[in-house]
Design a protein that fits this description.
Elements: E1 22-25, E2 30-33, E3 36-37, H1 38-44, H2 47-56, H3 62-74, H4 80-88, H5 95-109, H6 118-143, H7 157-166, H8 172-185, H9 192-202, H10 207-218, H11 226-237, H12 243-252, H13 270-285, H14 289-306, H15 312-322, H16 330-351
Antiparallel strand pairs: 1-2, 2-3
Length: 376
């Protein structure tokens, strides 16, 4: 690296791209997609409207939305070869690993797979957004020895996901809560997985390759895997009465608790506040209110002791669990929402591309003479 350059570990605070997609104000705890506040979108818009906004830059009118929803519904199918691939996978396969393989297989069957034009990328975005949800649910059913559930054309994206996962049509409350959670996860600026998709895209690789890379980045426990860790903590605590003892032990042993704090937000994660209310209602209606009570009590104890504020993954855990989503599917569910943002970023990167190629700070040995093998 050249003299005078300074190392910024983790690229913290480095601006790597211009984007019209996401406005993240970490100092004031605000988030907006395309200028629209995240709370308004989560409470009043559908995930389909949000995906349209990210891909087109504007919210759709009624005729536009109807055409867009029809496009997404028509893409609700996956190749039979992918179902067979799921059947050949070990049942212990991590769902995120299966999802990454699924995205690659979907790319083999997409008619626009090598076409990186704007229009082709828009078509691929609609297909992969629909197919990703189906793949997650199909793999889950197959690994449990069940047949995949055929998508329901009369259900929206979020409700259809829950239906394909469980075989039971969700209540309106459950569908709305899940729809809002997909919106809250849809886009979040240059997070690790989104940045990964843009780096891959910058090489002029294709959308499916970039999305597969995003899935791999999201899999990590410091990124998308945090929600699973939160739920495992809640299950470990088990009862509200056990939170106090658990917190004392965790603080004494300096145990790292996932779901608290954020690299960018300093005034709190606005998504967490929205999810808290939705988790409360969903847990109450499903008869699993204790998980919300444990979450709130743990939140209060940890915040009082350490000043840490929950992030989006903290309250998504009891919400997802109350909806009947298995813990090891929490991260794939995040992918089902983030696919809207990943594909929007891929389109944006292709439309104005420059190869992303940072430098490294060398810390190895100094220059030295090569010694032939016989003299070593």
């Amino acid at each position: 690296m050249s003299e005078g350059s300074s190392l910024i570990r983790g690229l913290e605070g480095v601006v790597a791209a211009e984007t019209r997609l996401c406005d993240l104000d970490g100092k004031n705890g605000r988030l907006a997609y395309g200028g629209y506040d995240i709370e308004d979108l989560a409470r009043q818009a559908t995930f389909e409207e949000v995906a349209y906004l990210l891909w087109h830059g504007e919210l759709p009118g009624k005729p536009q939305l109807d055409r867009f929803v029809s496009e997404l519904i028509s893409a609700r199918s996956i190749p039979r070869e992918l179902i067979e691939a799921f059947r050949l996978m070990p049942r212990s396969t991590d769902p995120m690993r299966a999802l990454q393989a699924a995205v690659a297989i979907l790319g083999m069957h997409d008619p626009d797979t090598t076409d990186n034009s704007h229009d082709a990328n828009r078509r691929k975005a609609a297909r992969v957004a629909s197919q990703l949800a189906i793949a997650i649910c199909a793999h889950h059913r197959v690994r449990g020895g069940q047949e995949p559930v055929t998508p329901a054309a009369d259900l929206g994206h979020a409700a259809n996901f829950l239906y394909m996962l469980t075989g039971v049509r969700p209540s309106a409350t459950a569908a709305k809560a899940f729809d809002a959670s997909l919106t809250l996860y849809a886009e979040h600026e240059m997070n690790a997985s989104t940045f990964t998709t843009r780096v891959i895209t910058s090489t002029q690789s294709d959308m499916h390759s970039a999305v597969a890379g995003g899935v791999g980045a999201l899999k990590g426990p410091l990124h998308g895997g945090a929600g699973e860790a939160v739920m495992h903590t809640l299950l470990e605590i088990g009862e509200v009465a056990s939170v106090e003892r658990f917190t004392e032990d965790a603080l004494r042993t300096k145990r790292r608790l996932m779901g608290f704090g954020h690299r960018v937000y300093r005034a709190g994660d606005p998504r967490a506040a929205i999810l808290r209310g939705m988790a409360e209602e969903a847990c109450r209606q499903s008869g699993q209110f204790k998980w919300f009570q444990i979450s709130v009590t743990l939140h209060e104890r940890i915040s009082a002791a350490k000043g840490l504020i929950p992030n989006v993954d903290f309250y998504s855990a009891p919400l997802f669990y109350s909806l009947g989503i298995p813990v090891d599917l929490f991260t794939p569910v995040i992918a089902a929402g983030r696919i809207a943002g990943w594909t929007a970023n891929i389109i944006e990167q292709h439309d104005d591309n420059r190869l992303i190629r940072p430098r490294g700070e060398y810390t190895g040995a100094g220059r030295r003479a090569f010694v032939p093998l016989a003299r070593r």
